[in-house]
Write a structure and sequence with these properties.
This protein is an alpha+beta fold. Helix content is 31%, strand content 29%. The protein has 3 helices and 6 strands. Strands 1, 2, 3, 4, 5 and 6 form a 6-stranded mixed β-sheet that branches.
């Protein structure tokens, strides 16, 4: 099963490592698309004058494949940047910049997926084994927040794990 914290930590790590985003606690450029997180981060200085990665909460479905629990997630992230009002040239440039950066994030995910299969001790998340690049969708978004525009990238990934039954977790087995 893919834990919510694993999902969030992975994308925060990408936002930190991507030079064009360069998320840090001092210069926050990553948030989860949750009203409390956005408002909290905005109060602490979420800087939309630079590209920002906003992560949506995932949706998913469970299945049973090869005698293991299959946890398929559908996730999405936004790459956004502020555009001054009434500046169509700047908006076009920002849209191009955000598309390029979104493709870099997707490219990194694909790289980590293929690297993981070569090294059994890979630090990359197991959930990327089932990252499906050919089903990736994107669409334009904006204006959001403070005149921000960019792209929303929607993807699928999964993880398979054994589903052990532990009788100690149930009161009727005492």
């Amino acid at each position: 099963m893919i834990l919510f914290s694993e999902y969030c930590d992975y994308f925060e790590d990408l936002a930190t490592k991507a030079k064009a985003i360069a998320h840090t606690s001092e210069a926050p450029r990553f948030a989860i698309l949750d009203i409390d997180d956005i408002l909290s981060t905005q109060r602490t200085g979420l800087d939309f004058t630079n590209p920002v990665l906003i992560l949506e909460n995932p949706e998913g479905e469970l299945g049973w494949i090869h005698n293991q629990l299959s946890d398929v997630k559908y996730g999405a992230f936004h790459i956004l940047k502020n555009v001054p009002r009434n500046d169509p040239e700047k908006k076009r440039a920002v849209m191009d910049e955000c598309m390029i950066l979104g493709r870099q994030i997707i490219s990194r995910m694909q790289y980590e997926k293929t690297s993981q299969h070569k090294d059994a001790d890979s630090p990359y998340p197991v959930m990327l084994r089932f990252f499906v690049l050919d089903r990736l969708k994107y669409n334009k978004i904006g204006p959001l927040f403070d005149s921000c525009f960019g792209w929303r990238f929607e993807f699928q990934f999964a993880k398979q794990t054994p589903l052990p039954f532990d009788s100690d977790e149930w009161s009727d087995f005492d």
